[in-house]
Amino acid sequence: MFLDQTGLSCRWLLAVLGIQMFIDYEDRIPEGCPAIVVSNHRSVIDPIVLTAGVGRTLRFASHHYMGQVPLLREIVTQFGAFPFDEPQHRPQQFFKQATQLLKQRQMVGIFPEGATPMLQQTQPNVVGTFQRGFAHLALRSRVSDLAVLPVAIATLEEQTLPSAIPLRLLGIFDPSEPLFNQPGWHPVILYRRIQILIGRPYWITPRLQRQYQGKQARKVVEDLTHYCHREIANLLPQSYQ
Predict the structure, then answer these.
(1) Do the beta carbons of residue 195 and residue 3 sit within 8 Å?
(2) What global pTM score does this model have?
């Protein structure tokens, strides 16, 4: 399997943090083509984990507040993230930046569950509802040889650390996020042992791109979204048997 410098750096960082990582189905990772990598999401270090699992640079669409908080902004951008813009410009900016990266034959990482499972401590084997932005991106970008790759991050052992970050403080950096308008603290989940399970890629063919119009568009988007959600949900139980 090909590993680039960012992938190697992320694997090294996980080792320094004492996190053991196991990878299954590496042969499913597409080689030499652009890809949208989608995954479940429960920890702030998931971008590093996913990059280490795939083994190459992933350009992440990260939450808006991560680009506003000092130090956190430097960390996420160091690992290839491009934080969302203000709410009124968010969809346009996301599609423009992500499409440009895909046309450059890069890999874009997206967490379709959004910030909810990361802020509301969900169970490791539960996958929340997927937002459909990644499916629209895949079908709208008109990029050839594009794959959508579902990846499951399964925690075999983890620890919840005390947090010093109140949710309302994050609301200062992103007042548009309703999750920050509540009491409580931002949970910090630190993995100890994780298993990365690579799903079967979903190839965006010219036929699918042609179907992304009119009444057919909604069904094509739903099919792709459900496929990735189902693939990840089915992979997770393999780690908890």
Answers:
(1) no
(2) 0.83
